[in-house]
Amino acid sequence: MQSQQENQAIEKLLSDFAATLNAATIQHISSFFTEDAVFMPDGFKILKAADLKRTGNGYLQRSHFQIGFTIKEVEIGLPYAFVRATAAAALLDPDTQQLITQQSRDFFVLRKDNEDWKIFRYMFNRVKVK
């Protein structure tokens, strides 16, 4: 059963996750994931939750990475939720300093963890890069 409260909590999770990525505060990124989470980024190796604590900070800062998610669909079947979203991201190529914009399709499997939604599985694929 989906409730307005659960949907709002999921929207807040993804909004806060984007804000943390945009601020390049890597020390907080792992707090959005379950301890057994798996992140499957397009074109990169699979990262487990432990890897997230030591990956990306330099890159996020150097590239001035910015992202925003638009939720397209949420299906909740406690303790899991499935979220289909799109993302728009912008970053500076660290080598050329040229702005790169990307659009992707994102899929999240969330899990309730001590009454809070956390990212259990996350994957995306780029659909447009400029």
Report on this structure.
The chain has one domain: Nuclear Transport Factor 2, Chain: A. It has four helices and six strands. A hairpin with a 6-residue loop joins strand 1 (about 35-40) and strand 2 (about 45-50). The protein has a six-stranded mixed β-sheet. It is α+β, with helices and mostly antiparallel strands. The mean pLDDT is about 90. It is globular, with a radius of gyration of 15 Å.
Radius of gyration: 15 Å
Basic shape: globular
Number of strands: 6
> What is the fold named in CATH at topology level?
Nuclear Transport Factor 2, Chain: A
Structural class: alpha+beta
Main beta-sheet annotation: 6 strands, mixed
Mean pLDDT: 90
Strand content: over 45%
CATH architecture: Roll
The helix-strand sequence is HHEEHHEEEE
Query: How many DSSP helices?
Result: 4
Count the domains: 1
User: So what's the CATH class?
Assistant: Alpha Beta
